[in-house]
């Protein structure tokens, strides 16, 4: 299953890189940036626009979204399909295709009977670390049209909601078209052992690979700090 995941990540990042490169080719032809180029030493010396090789260094970022969604999904499959065999893979695939239609019992099992990232549980935290690192390392294997070195990161801002609206149901128990998780944070409501456990889970990720940074948002009920 992890090898299939690796292949899908490689395919997705390759497709994304090709799309970015096509856009950059269009910028070179249609959207030069003369003012920005004029403030860049190397571009002035070479007499080239930044979209046409004027910069000495090129860096670009590709951001990952949904670390916890992936980790919780893979952890649920590992425990409930492979280890305990409480659900068959066919049953899981079918219920995801139907967005848990008429099978709330199975959705609750996926939500509550499998470990969730954000609780200082090494079993799922290691899955999060590995699956996230697969993405981060794959990004570094690519170069765009301008030869940019990609700096991968894990953050989303509003994209977690926007992109979530195009993602179907997940084995984590998340219903179709709901928001994805933000940055490196646990899934909403799944960090049940307090903020310290959540921080410890996040700290286990390969942050040194997140060269373009990460975002870890923590939300608290105001009543927590009332006194």
Helix/strand layout:
Layout: H1 2-30, H2 34-38, H3 41-46, E1 59-64, H4 67-83, H5 89-97, H6 104-112, H7 122-139, E2 149-154, H8 159-164, H9 194-203
Parallel strand pairs: 1-2
Round the mean pLDDT to the nearest integer and report it: 95
Query: What radius of gyration results from the CA coordinates?
Result: 21 Å
- The general outline is elongated
Helical amount? 40-55%
DSSP E strands, number:
2
Q: Strand order across the biggest sheet? A: 1-2
> Roughly what fraction of the amino acids lie in strands?
5-15%
- By DSSP (H or I, 4+ residues per run), the number of helices equals 9
Class computed from helices, strands and strand pairing: mainly alpha
Major β-sheet annotation:
2 strands, parallel
| Poorly predicted sequence stretches spanning 5 or more consecutive residues | none
Order of helices and strands: HHHEHHHHEHH
Kindly report how far apart the N and C termini lie.
48 Å
What is this entry, summarized?
By secondary structure, the chain is mainly α. It has helices at about 1-30, 35-40, 40-45, 65-85, 90-95, 105-110, 120-140, 160-165, 195-205, and strands at about 60-65, 150-155.
């Amino acid at each position: 299953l992890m090898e299939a995941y690796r292949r899908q990540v490689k395919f997705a990042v390759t497709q994304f890189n090709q799309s970015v490169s096509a856009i950059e080719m269009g910028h070179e032809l249609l959207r030069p940036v003369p003012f920005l180029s004029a403030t860049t030493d190397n571009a002035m010396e070479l007499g080239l626009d930044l979209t046409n090789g004027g910069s000495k260094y090129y860096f670009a970022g590709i951001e990952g979204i949904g670390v916890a969604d992936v980790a919780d999904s893979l952890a649920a499959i590992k425990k409930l399909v492979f280890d305990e065999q409480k659900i068959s893979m066919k049953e899981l695939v079918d219920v995801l295709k139907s967005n848990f239609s008429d099978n709330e019992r199975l959705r609750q099992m996926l939500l509550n009977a499998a470990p969730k990232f954000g609780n200082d549980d090494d079993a799922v935290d290691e899955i999060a670390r590995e699956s996230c690192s697969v993405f981060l390392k794959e990004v570094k294997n690519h170069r765009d049209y301008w030869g940019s070195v990609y700096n991968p990161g894990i953050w989303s801002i509003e994209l977690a909601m926007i992109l979530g609206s195009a993602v179907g149901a997940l084995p984590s128990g998340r219903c179709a078209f709901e928001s994805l998780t933000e940055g490196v944070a646990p899934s909403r409501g799944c960090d049940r052992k307090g903020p310290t456990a959540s921080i410890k889970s996040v700290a286990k990720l390969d942050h040194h690979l997140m060269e373009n940074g990460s975002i870890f948002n923590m939300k608290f009920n105001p009543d927590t700090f009332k006194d």
